[in-house]
Design goal:
eight-stranded mixed β-sheet, four-stranded antiparallel β-sheet
């Protein structure tokens, strides 16, 4: 356990609005090791962003624990006192999805990046300026432009500003919520390479939330697949991509474009739509769209079971393996 940084235990989030309850997360469990990158994938509405925001306490979880392993012991981040939050907030940061909406247009880039230092440290103005100059240089921002406002920057440059802001306190964990989805492919590659270089230098740990499966495969050590608020598969990246076990994972990976035109992949077309989370199906949430569903799937929710080092929530896992 010495190498564990974060434990998510039975994390659930229910949104209540006008008498309607929407379960965005349902008893999610995850152990994150120091220095690794865990990719989190799934369709829109599966709970990826909700999970990330609950971890950083951007929103309050309904139940569960987020156990953060610190030098002083294990802290439940969801129940941390004000003093504990003040002490450990700097260790858990987030890169937001939209680089156009996540930066305050009324603040200069210098003020945006330096704000965490002003609120969380007692550094002098000169020390803050030196720290901002250093992190700006590391993420590829021109120091001469730090007094400009966000509207003067491109999408890729704005994302670098967001990364600099998240790194300025030298955190241990960064939740990357679609950190490259708003960028074109060439800029995506630059940002991914930057994140990998910074991870090596600072021994960072990432929760990398993304729709881009090819990016997730490149950057992640392990991958968690979510469907309607539940984890359905979790395992080592290369093993999961080479041999997906859950039928939903198989369908997701079959949709990834192949760069080699000579490689033929049988596309798995899922029937129907993603169910309404306010009225989810009984049993396995995926059963209305699954070709292998049985009566048991319709009535009983499958637990996560270890299959050769892979966690899979599927009653028919043995039958659907290899059907890609």
């Amino acid at each position: 356990m010495d190498n564990v940084l974060l434990e998510i235990r039975n994390l659930s989030k229910v949104y209540d609005s006008k008498g309607v309850s929407v379960r965005a997360l349902s008893d999610v469990n995850l152990t994150v090791m120091r220095g690794e990158t865990i990719g989190i994938v799934g369709e829109s509405g599966c709970g990826k962003t909700t999970l990330g925001r609950c971890v950083v306490r951007g929103i309050d979880a309904t139940s569960g624990e987020v156990l953060f392993h610190t030098e002083d012991g294990v802290i439940d981040f969801l129940k941390a006192t004000g003093a504990q939050m003040k002490k450990y907030r700097k260790d858990i940061q987030m890169i937001f999805q939209d680089p156009y909406a996540s930066l305050d247009p009324r603040m200069t880039v210098f003020d945006i990046i330096s704000e965490p230092l002003r609120y969380n440290t007692r550094m002098s103005a000169k020390e803050i300026e030196q720290a901002v100059d250093r992190i700006a240089e590391q993420v590829g921002l021109n120091k001469a432009y730090l007094r400009r406002y966000p509207h003067a920057f491109s999408g890729g440059q704005r994302q670098r500003i967001g990364i600099a802001r998240s790194l300025i306190l030298q955190p241990k964990l960064i939740v990357c919520d679609e950190a490259v989805s708003a960028l074109d492919v060439s800029i995506q590659a630059q940002i991914i390479n930057l994140l990998e270089d910074l991870q090596k230098e600072y021994h960072l740990t990432y929760l990398f939330i993304s729709h881009a499966l090819s990016v997730v495969r490149h950057i992640s050590d392990r991958v968690m697949v979510m469907y309607l608020g539940r984890m359905v598969e979790f395992g080592e990246t290369e093993a999961l991509f080479a041999h997906p076990m859950h039928p939903y994972t198989q369908a997701l990976l079959s949709a990834v474009p192949q760069p080699d035109p000579d490689i033929s992949v049988d596309r798995i077309i899922l029937e129907g739509e993603v169910p309404n989370p306010a009225n989810p199906p009984s049993g396995c949430h995926f059963h209305p769209r699954c070709a292998y569903a049985t009566e048991r799937c319709r009535t009983e929710a499958p637990p996560l079971v270890n299959h050769d080092g892979r966690l899979v929530a599927c009653w028919e896992c043995g039958k659907c393996q290899g059907k890609t």
